[in-house]
Amino acid sequence: MDASANQDVKTIGNSALLNTRKVGLLCSRRCPGTIIVKTLDLALALRNSAATVIGGFQSSMERECLETLLRGKHPVIVCPARGIEGMRQPAAWKSAIAENSLLIASPFRAKQRRATAELAEERNRFVADLADEVIIAHASPGGKLERLCNDIIACGKPIRTLDDPANTHLLALGMRPLRVGDVTRLGKP
Fold first, then answer.
1. pLDDT tens profile 133-171
2. Residue 140 CB neighbour total at 10 angstroms
3. Engineering a disulfide at 1: which of 38, 108, 155, 156 sits with its beta carbon 3.0 to 4.6 angstroms away?
């Protein structure tokens, strides 16, 4: 699953974050209410962990997590599902870049200026490749993110999902359950 080794990665911000211990964070666009509450708690816990959080931060749940992470000085890598040359950055991103706590990274060419479902799927693989371990807050049963989970499990990379009845199908795949209290151990080698 190491497609990133063959990709030309474009970056804006603190590229030294690529050399840190990274926890990937992904979540389907739709998720149950119990997952929403646990994911918000997870974002708060991640903000206090030792790991750099990497993700696409495209789904509404992921965007909420990014806002929480950026309210602190937590290191974050944002991977848009498009090229980043000439990309407009929100004020919070500019501030975090100035403070060396944010990196924007993309494997996509400049001409890929709009996010598509295909680019989002490729971006999620890129995030999983770069991460040392992956957290899937929720993946819709039968969806693209669930298929990616199977690939991550097959390559032996550590992958966890929130411990919730809505994630029973992910636990059945072989993912380890994650409780928010366990997050303090993430990011440590």
1. 999 999 999 999 999 999 999 999 999 999 999 999 999
2. 15
3. 155
